[in-house]
Amino acid sequence: MSATDPHPVIAAARAEAPDRRSATIRSYAALGDSFTAGTGCDPGERWPDHLAAIVGRDSPRFAYRNLAVEGATSTSVLDQLGPALQLEPDLVTVVCGVNDVLFSVRPDAARYARNLAGIARRLREVLPEVRILTATAPERWAFLDLGPRTRARLERGSRRFNMVTRAIADSHGLGLLDVADHPGLAEPDNFVADGLHPSAIAHRRAAAGFAGLLGI
């Protein structure tokens, strides 16, 4: 892949995107866990920062808040809704669920479904025209030092949660960046040293993928 070629996740998002520029986005709120909060990433290098720079470039009074918190479960993300609604965003990204799997030996997919659907419903109740984007999570953890039983549990839980994410995105009209089984997850440069959180280049790739969902 040359320096000018799009990463496969970017190309896939562009292929699914409509051939038009998105309507003007005047405000953007990012909800989620460490993936969105940018754990292991320098300030300004998080994918929501890049996405905000892309979608807000044509709006002189553009407003952006990243409300994500490291370690947040889908239940914790519900607490981010209030501050997000105060911004009256035109765009919301909400990516969560990984910690529901990581922090429990019996991840509750039904609770995750209620939480993600509840977030989408609440946003649309208050802001009927808001655009909401979400994403699936990795189903392989190649760079994490895990025992075989723990690895099997995490991969099994991730697959179940990704099925829920796809179903909620479909039923609630959310834009979905589906990277669960993406080949880039086997590339070391997409992760920081802990093997879990995305690197700066992966954050840029994620931002481009989300922008593609918006038709940009």
The low-pLDDT segments are: 1-22
Number of strands: 5
Estimate percent helicity. Answer: 40-55%
The end-to-end distance, rounded to whole angstroms, is 22 Å
What is the count of helical runs?
Answer: 9
Shape: globular
Instruction: Give me the side-by-side strand order of the main sheet.
Output: 2-1-3-4-5
Sheet with the most strands, sense and barrel status:
5 strands, parallel
What labels would you give this structure?
single chain; 216 residues; disordered N terminus
What does this molecule look like?
The two termini are 22 Å apart. The chain is 44% helix and 11% strand. It is built from nine helices and five strands. The radius of gyration is 16 Å and the shape is globular. Helix 8 links the parallel strand 4 (131-135) and strand 5 (175-177). Helix 1 packs parallel to helix 9, helix 3 (47-55) crosses helix 9 and helix 7 (109-126) packs parallel to helix 8 (148-172). It has a five-stranded parallel β-sheet with strand order 2-1-3-4-5, with helices on both faces. With 216 residues, the chain is of the alpha/beta class.
In short:
The protein has 216 residues and is an alpha/beta fold.
Layout of helices and strands:
Blueprint: H1 8-16, E1 27-32, H2 34-37, H3 47-55, E2 63-66, H4 74-77, H5 81-86, E3 91-95, H6 98-102, H7 109-126, E4 131-135, H8 148-172, E5 175-177, H9 200-213
Parallel strand pairs: 1-2, 1-3, 3-4, 4-5
Helix pairs in contact: 1-9, 3-9, 7-8
